[in-house]
Task: inverse folding
């Protein structure tokens, strides 16, 4: 059935697209998918078509993105998405037990929704909160250090119409309301962001720094964040200062040039100073005797059939047999041809080495055995398989 999105959704879609450059409008696809999910509770085929329409894409391009990210649901989802981490750390701490208890209590499995449409349960591979494990989230808000009983208490309160307070974060909202926020729009509920706070494990590093007097040199927490213009100006001043501090270029040396016999060159002839590299050496760079790349030289020395192989790479030798004689040109090609001849390619789509005669023989013997003693089809198949 065709779904007509509301005028508010279309207006918000235009607002999302306007956030991006005109030639980069397809970058708005991710928030647009959250937007259609906010209206329907999931990304339906109509939602995919809507995103394709407003962005000028085809539905295959939109569907490829919608099916890649797990936050986009492809079937109707409950008001509250309950995700239980069952990855390594949380699992060791009891995450799997929490998930199993909830599944039995709610009567649903992974990615399934209760009959009243309130709860959708899923196990998550990681919720990025190992120091709070076991953890579960409700519409992506955290409940830390849960066990089976506390998790059951949370879902029961949700089904009764309550809104339990997350351990960290703002007050709970429905999945559709959360999708509006993920699309980039503020939560308009009264006091929506007035609650919550950082957990103690998050603040542990700060506590240790304060206890031991650890701080960043010259850091002033009261220093306001500079604007871009101020930051650009400071960077330009620093660059100019660095340019001014550069040493003057080295002038030519006035030392006399020695002739080939050790005698001094005629007066007035000077030799430019030798360049000094980063290591302080004045030795001139000497061009390598061969312009070939190391890969080419290695390949040529290891494959004498190329006809141009020479032992020019340092530390390498042309391959030789036990007598010390290098292989004649063409030996490798002859060996390859012999190998191909001894291993005929498979035909008729069968794997290499699959002999058709053995299969036919097994089938013939199985059929003969059935005709002789009246054995059933299953017996004949088993006999053929054994043979």
Result:
């Amino acid at each position: 059935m065709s779904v007509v999105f509301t005028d508010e959704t279309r207006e918000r879609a235009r607002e999302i697209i306007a956030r991006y450059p005109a030639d980069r409008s397809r970058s708005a696809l991710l928030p647009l998918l959250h937007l259609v999910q906010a209206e329907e509770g999931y990304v339906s085929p109509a939602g995919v078509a809507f995103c394709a329409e407003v962005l000028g894409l085809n539905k295959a391009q939109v569907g490829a993105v919608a099916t890649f990210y797990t936050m986009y649901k492809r079937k109707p989802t409950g008001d509250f998405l309950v995700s239980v981490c069952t990855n390594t750390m949380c699992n060791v701490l009891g995450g799997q037990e929490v998930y199993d208890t909830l599944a039995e209590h709610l009567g649903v499995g992974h990615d399934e929704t209760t009959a009243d449409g309130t709860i959708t349960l899923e196990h998550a591979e990681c919720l990025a909160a190992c120091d709070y494990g076991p953890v579960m989230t409700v519409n992506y808000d955290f409940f830390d250090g849960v066990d089976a009983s506390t998790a059951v208490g949370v879902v029961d309160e949700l089904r009764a119409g309550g809104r339990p307070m997350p351990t960290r974060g703002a007050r709970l909202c429905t999945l559709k309301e959360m999708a509006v926020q993920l699309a980039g729009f503020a939560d308009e509920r009264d006091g929506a962001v007035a609650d919550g706070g950082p957990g103690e494990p998050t603040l542990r590093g700060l506590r240790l720094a304060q206890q031991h007097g650890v701080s960043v040199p010259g850091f002033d927490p009261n220093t306001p964040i500079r604007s871009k213009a101020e930051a650009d100006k400071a960077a330009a001043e620093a660059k100019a200062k660095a340019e001014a501090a550069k040493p003057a270029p080295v002038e030519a040396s006035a030392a006399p040039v020695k002739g080939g016999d050790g005698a001094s060159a005629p007066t007035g002839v000077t030799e430019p100073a030798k360049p000094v590299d980063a290591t302080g050496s004045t030795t001139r760079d000497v061009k390598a005797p061969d312009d070939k790349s190391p890969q080419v030289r290695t390949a040529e020395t290891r494959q004498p059939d190329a006809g141009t192989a020479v032992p020019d790479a340092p530390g390498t030798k042309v391959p030789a047999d036990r007598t010390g004689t290098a292989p004649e040109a063409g030996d490798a090609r002859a060996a390859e041809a012999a190998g191909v001849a001894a291993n005929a390619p498979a035909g008729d789509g069968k794997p290499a080495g699959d002999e058709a005669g053995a299969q036919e023989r097994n089938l013939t013997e199985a059929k003969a055995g059935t005709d002789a003693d009246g054995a059933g089809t299953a017996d004949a198949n088993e006999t053929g398989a054994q043979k």
